[in-house]
């Protein structure tokens, strides 16, 4: 089987399994609704207390921002870095090396496949919630950009997680790293606070970081801002992160073959 | 009680067996907690005072939350895993011992990473919350009440797995409680506010205790104590009834 076809099969298979796991999806939606209901409520109170505008965002815009940024992150397993590290440490990856396809490629394709139905279900629920709690999307046309941007966001996130988790080839335990990674996504990625609301210096750093491609980009689009450049930025980061993850895994796999798992 | 004390001592010895790893994990968690404090500082710097909450009061809230979280998730670490253990059949070894199962399970394991929460919470209170003698005593008491409530809630939601056969309820309860507990409850109204005080009593594990540290109120203190007692009873009853439906997984070493 050609590697390209193997990735497609892995993606479709994972997406199919994700759809069939109805119970898991319901739990994820329940958790997501609790989070976005609360966080968007906090931001609406803050906007109301500040004359209806906060950093260029209205209460409706911030609600749509939050439901999108949270969907982008919650749809990806937060502890994926830890799990990849465990697979490396236990030798699972060594077995995967026997396949005639890239370990990294298959793993990323599988996780993206798993994430797409989840992000669709979460965002759909969030859109319903946002409409009920706050109102219709501030600029419905931007949702056309936000939808593909969400898929790019989870792809960038998964590639970055693999690049970071590759550290387990050398230190054996990447268990704690995911905490730090997630906190970077929370703030630098704009998951819980739009980057425009950060102090100027931190906003500039965040805008230049790959984390902005994982939550801020789709959320900014869904909040009514027609900025196609965000999609281009995501594509650039996906390319960079794919190269970084590929190099890290290639070096790690070589080490595994030389010194054993 | 002797058996339970010995269990706790063993759990401590296990956690302290790798001091370098313990220090590393605690440090990572402290950085994690610090990121949340940064978020709230940025938030209140941007929006000003909201519903009586400002930067100082939210720092007290974070200190109480991380201290209680550290005590519950660090020292009584299996509280979070009740659902997984129930579904996975991991309780065999516990049931064969002449000790009350629930206290034994709770004391059996310490989670080193969450000891970082405990260290962070206490440090944050001492460094950033302007502690007075009365305030410090109140902080200790409300943190213990909050710990009791959080542990009971985790056991209760985890023990539901005995009845529904899936362990997600425990994880969902855990994440909901900690996420929602970090928010200043007075900012919410309506159904969300009612939920934060009752079904998911997140307000009771951080916002109410933090308010008591700032300004003691006997009525709120009593409400906190009652909530802790009610959830403790509910958790114990649910766990005990759930054990009757427990199915062995022939796993003898993971409890």
Task: Give an overview in words.
The complex is a heterodimer of chains A (about 260) and B (about 260). Chain A has about 260 residues and is mainly α. Chain A has helices spanning about 5-20, 20-50, 60-75, 80-90, 90-95, 105-135, 145-165, 170, 175-185, 200-210, 215-220, 230-260. Chain A is globular, with a radius of gyration of 19 Å. Chain A starts with a helix and ends with a helix. By secondary structure, chain B is mostly helical. The longest helix of chain B is centred in the N-terminal third of the chain and has 29 residues, at about 20-45. Chain B is globular. The chains are: A mainly alpha (about 260), B mainly alpha (about 260).
What distinguishing features does this structure have?
heterodimer; A: 261 residues; mainly alpha; 12 helices; 74% helix; B: 255 residues; 0% strand
Total DSSP E strands of chain A? 0
Structural class of chain A: mainly alpha
Average pLDDT over all residues of chain A: 89
The fraction of residues in strands of chain B falls at under 5%
- The tally of strands of chain B reads 0
Tell me the distance between the termini of chain B. Answer: 19 Å
The percent of residues in helical segments of chain A reads over 70%
């Amino acid at each position: 089987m050609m590697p390209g076809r193997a990735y497609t099969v892995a993606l479709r298979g994972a997406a199919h399994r994700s759809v069939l796991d109805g119970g898991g999806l319901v739990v994820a939606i329940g958790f997501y609704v609790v989070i976005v209901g609360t966080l968007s409520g906090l931001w609406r109170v803050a906007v109301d207390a500040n004359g209806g505008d906060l950093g260029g965002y209205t209460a409706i815009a911030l609600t749509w921002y939050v439901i999108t940024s949270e969907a982008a992150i919650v749809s990806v397993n937060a502890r994926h870095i830890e799990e990849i590290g465990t697979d490396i440490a236990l030798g699972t990856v060594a077995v995967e090396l026997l396949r005639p396809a890239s370990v990294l490629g298959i793993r990323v394709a599988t996780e993206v496949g798993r994430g797409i139905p989840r992000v669709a279900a979460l965002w759909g629920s969030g859109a319903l919630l946002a409409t009920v709690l706050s109102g219709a999307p501030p600029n419905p046309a931007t949702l056309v950009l936000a939808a593909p941007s969400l898929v790019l966001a989870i792809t960038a996130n998964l590639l970055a997680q693999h690049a970071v988790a590759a550290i387990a080839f050398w230190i054996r335990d990447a268990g704690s790293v995911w905490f730090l990674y997630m906190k970077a996504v929370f703030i630098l990625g704009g998951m819980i606070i739009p980057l425009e609301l950060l102090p100027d210096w931190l906003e500039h750093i965040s805008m230049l970081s790959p984390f902005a491609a994982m939550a801020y980009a789709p959320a900014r689009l869904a909040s009514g801002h027609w900025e196609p450049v965000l999609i281009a930025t995501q594509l650039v980061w996906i390319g960079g992160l794919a190269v970084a993850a590929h190099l890290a895994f290639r070096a790690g796999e070589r080490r595994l073959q030389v010194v054993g798992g | 009680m002797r058996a339970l004390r010995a269990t706790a001592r063993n759990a401590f010895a296990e956690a302290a067996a790798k001091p370098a790893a313990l220090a590393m994990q605690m440090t990572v968690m402290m950085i994690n907690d610090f990121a949340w404090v940064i978020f709230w500082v940025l938030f209140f710097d941007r929006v000003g005072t909201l519903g009586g909450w400002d930067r100082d009061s939210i720092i007290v809230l974070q200190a109480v939350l991380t201290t209680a979280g550290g005590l519950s998730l660090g020292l009584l670490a299996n509280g979070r895993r009740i659902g997984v253990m129930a579904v996975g059949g991991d309780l065999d070894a516990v049931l064969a011992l002449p000790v009350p199962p629930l206290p034994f399970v709770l004391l059996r394991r310490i989670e080193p990473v969450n000891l970082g929460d405990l260290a962070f919470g206490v440090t944050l209170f001492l460094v950033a919350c302007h502690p007075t003698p009365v305030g410090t005593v109140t902080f200790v008491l409300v943190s213990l009440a909050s710990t009791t409530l959080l542990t009971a809630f985790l056991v209760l939601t985890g023990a539901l797995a005995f009845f529904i056969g899936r362990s997600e309820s425990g994880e969902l309860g855990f994440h909901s409680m900690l996420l929602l507990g970090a928010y200043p409850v007075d900012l919410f109204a309506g159904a969300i506010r009612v939920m934060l005080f009752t079904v998911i009593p997140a307000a009771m594990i951080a916002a109410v205790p933090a308010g008591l540290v700032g300004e003691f109120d006997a009525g709120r203190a009593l409400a906190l104590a009652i909530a802790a007692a009610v959830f403790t009873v509910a958790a114990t009853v649910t766990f005990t009834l759930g054990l009757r439906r427990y199915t062995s997984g022939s796993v003898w070493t993971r409890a």
